[in-house]
Design a protein that fits this description.
Helices cover 34% and strands 20% of the residues. By secondary structure, the protein is an alpha+beta fold. The chain is elongated and about 75 Å long. The N and C termini lie far apart (68 Å).
Length: 88
């Protein structure tokens, strides 16, 4: 196991630690990689998240038409003039 000493530094209103590239590579992490942070005892744990671009889309789409008002709009019969405009 590779150990590196570092210092927590102020970054604006937050704090941060610089992580050497070699440690990131060993963990399979890179710049802009999605991660999850947690606390385990007195340790801060970073975990890589395997996020797929469409994760959660189906659930999100299902909530879009869950409301009664949404159903009314989606099931409403269009005015014949509006319907004619759609078929042009």
């Amino acid at each position: 196991m590779f150990h590196v000493r570092s210092v927590i530094r102020r970054l604006g209103k937050s704090q941060g630690v610089s992580i050497p590239k070699s440690l990131l590579e060993q963990a399979g992490l890179s710049v802009d990689a999605p991660i999850e942070t947690s606390v385990d005892g007195n340790s801060i744990v970073l975990r890589r998240l395997d996020v797929h671009s469409r994760t959660g889309w189906a659930e999100g789409a299902a909530t879009l038409i869950d409301g009664e008002e949404d159903r009314e709009w989606l099931e409403a019969d269009l005015d014949p003039r509006s319907r004619a405009e759609l078929t042009r």
